[in-house]
């Protein structure tokens, strides 16, 4: 099993650890200390050695941070984690609703003037510190970079990962890394930039056609890189490099340890080096500022990570790989749902059984490299915890008359999958069916939309919410996130949410996952992956280029939960067509009971 079910949150340890941290704050002459979820690579998922927020507070969500002051310890969480945090932290910590409450405002409310708030400059980006500094202007509260105080008190902290690098074949990458480096280097030169510092491991893995296992569920290598305008790369990593990887890099990539960064920067005379303030650690900018002060010919420029958009625009080989991965994954999901349809009504299943059996079906493909995140298996009220992770303490029976929410995915060499289905176990209430149907209507709206160039995910988000809004309902997460190509299951900058400001482009892969959650009762989410493509012309339409979405995921919806009376004719037609396509694509990949189940599940509404 990739997934395990041990209890990783320990609220009872929080008070002693908080007290020890406050002792270190006094020794360091600071009145506050910020503990982010992120590591120095700003990833959503972190290695055990970097899981400081969970170690200190007990909160295990993938987003959030804590700010520890002498008299209050705030744990800042967004709408996805407001139920989860209640059971994971001790009373010495105070949940703070973020982003409604901003850190700067909260600090000003709880600290007096001339107080000092410490932070680890490796764990915060340039943009984050600038924003926080601006929010504290006029308060005389100082932000001070200091040694990480959590690391001082974390006596049994695990060692950082140093796992081998693997070559990602050109046959699935769709482009040689030499060509990527040359193309992006030429763009730097055109913009008058000699070098770009790249801080994100998934950007580096995409650029160099490599993968790794430094982070669970995300096949990335812990690394920084410097790309120059000739396409040459300085790679900084502590990962072991074997002969195959060295041959792959050839003369194009020089490998250094992380400790060499300062030396590398000191050698860059008469140079313009570009950083992305949204991803570069503040500690790196400090090094660059020191270098610039010593050498007036050295300048610092700022722009977006040069890999961000090229990585998001999947090429034709990556798109075809994603199609293949989703058919393979879809067949595993159909086998799982057919099994669940027989076993769940017996009353003998629990949430862990669901996770275990689903992973087995994916493993049976003989192509699974990992799951793409911890499978969410939420029965009844646990389904209302948006990013619920079942463990031995929370494991709940799958009961008749309740909903079961299953959000899961696989990491395959040719693609990353992410799918959510909500299933009725036996007969459920009319209210659950109405809510499910509204969520399905929102998903259908995103699936069917057409839009011109320049439209952003923020422009589309309301389409998914409209049926829920009419009923006075909503959900506290984005409608969709970007997805990598055998990379991170959550990839920027593309997305569908109020914050998604990047225009959508052909080749981007996103999730389409509206939901609805009723605390203490049930949760509903339905998710397919989609990719942006050029839309076919419409007879009688304007001569204007348009885009739309191709659906990549093919697994039936639970027809027991669909209230057909709420659907429009066009919505019903889209669902019937989706089910017809699903039977056509997945039917040849399954047999026996799974094929019988699929045939019934895909019958017209």
UniProtKB/TrEMBL annotation:
Residues 17-151 form the Creatinase N-terminal domain. The keyword Protease applies. Transmembrane segments: none annotated. The keyword Metal-binding applies. Residues 545-605 form the Peptidase M24 C-terminal domain. InterPro entries: Creatin/AminoP/Spt16_N, Creatinase/aminopeptidase-like, Creatinase_N, Pept_M24, Pept_M24B, Peptidase_M24_C, X-Pro_aminopeptidase_P. Keywords: Aminopeptidase, Hydrolase, Metal-binding, Protease. Residues 322-533 form the Peptidase M24 domain. One of its GO terms (molecular function) is aminopeptidase activity. It comes from the Bacteria. Belongs to the peptidase M24B family. This is Aminopeptidase P family protein. It comes from Octadecabacter dasysiphoniae.
């Amino acid at each position: 099993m990739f997934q395990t079910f041990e209890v990783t949150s320990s609220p009872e340890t929080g008070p002693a650890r908080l007290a020890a941290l406050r002792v270190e704050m006094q020794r360091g002459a600071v009145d506050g200390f910020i503990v982010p979820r992120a590591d120095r690579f700003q990833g959503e998922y972190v290695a055990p050695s970097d899981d400081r927020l969970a170690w200190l507070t007990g909160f295990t969500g993938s987003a959030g941070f804590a700010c520890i002051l002498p008299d209050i310890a705030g744990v800042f969480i967004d709408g996805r984690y407001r139920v989860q945090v209640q059971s994971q932290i001790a009373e010495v910590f105070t949940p703070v609703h973020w982003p409604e409450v901003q850190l700067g405002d909260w600090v000003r409310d709880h600290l007096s003037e001339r107080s000092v708030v410490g932070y680890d400059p490796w764990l915060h980006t340039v943009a984050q510190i600038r924003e926080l500094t601006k929010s504290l202007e006029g308060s005389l509260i100082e932000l001070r970079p200091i040694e990480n105080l959590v690391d001082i008190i974390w006596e049994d902290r695990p060692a950082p990962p140093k796992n081998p690098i693997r070559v990602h074949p050109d046959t699935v990458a769709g482009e040689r890394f030499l060509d990527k480096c040359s193309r992006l280097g030429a763009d730097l030169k055109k913009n008058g930039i000699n070098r770009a510092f790249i801080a994100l491991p998934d950007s580096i893995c995409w650029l160099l056609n490599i993968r790794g296992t430094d982070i669970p569920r995300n096949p990335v290598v812990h690394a920084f890189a410097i790309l120059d305008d000739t396409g040459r790369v300085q790679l900084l990593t502590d990962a072991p490099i074997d002969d195959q990887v060295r041959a792959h890099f050839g003369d194009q990539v020089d490998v250094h340890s992380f400790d060499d960064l300062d030396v590398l920067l000191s050698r860059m005379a008469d140079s313009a080096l570009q950083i992305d303030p949204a991803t570069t650690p503040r500690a790196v900018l400090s090094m660059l500022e020191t270098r610039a002060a010593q050498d007036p010919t050295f300048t610092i420029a700022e722009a977006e990570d040069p890999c961000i958009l090229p990585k998001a625009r999947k090429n034709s080989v990556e798109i075809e790989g994603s199609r293949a991965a989703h058919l393979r994954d879809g067949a595993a999901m159909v086998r799982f749902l057919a099994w669940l349809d027989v076993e769940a009504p017996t009353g003998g299943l629990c949430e862990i059984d669901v996770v275990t059996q689903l992973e087995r079906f994916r493993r049976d493909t003989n192509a699974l490299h990992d799951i793409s995140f911890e499978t969410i298996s939420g029965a009844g009220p646990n389904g209302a915890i948006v990013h619920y992770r079942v463990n031995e303490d929370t494991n709940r029976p799958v009961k008749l008359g309740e909903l079961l929410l299953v959000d899961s995915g696989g990491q395959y060499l040719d693609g990353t999958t992410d799918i959510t289905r909500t299933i009725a176990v036996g007969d459920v209430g009319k209210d659950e069916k109405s809510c499910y149907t509204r969520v399905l209507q929102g998903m259908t709206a995103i699936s069917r939309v057409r839009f011109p160039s320049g439209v952003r995910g923020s422009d589309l988000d309301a389409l998914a919410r409209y049926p829920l809004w009419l009923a006075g309902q909503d959900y506290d997460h984005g409608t969709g996130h970007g997805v990598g190509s055998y990379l991170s299951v959550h990839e920027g900058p593309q997305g569908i949410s109020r914050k998604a400001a990047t225009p959508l482009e052909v080749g981007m892969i996103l999730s389409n996952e509206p939901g609805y959650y009723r605390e203490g009762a049930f949760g509903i989410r339905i998710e397919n992956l989609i990719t942006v493509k050029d839309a076919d012309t419409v007879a009688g339409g304007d001569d204007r280029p348009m885009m739309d979405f191709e659906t990549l995921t093919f697994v039936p919806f639970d027809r027991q939960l669909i209230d057909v009376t709420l659907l429009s004719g066009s919505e019903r037609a889209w669902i019937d067509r989706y089910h017809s396509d699903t039977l056509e694509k997945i039917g040849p990949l399954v047999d026996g009971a799974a094929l019988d189940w699929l045939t019934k599940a895909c019958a017209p509404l």
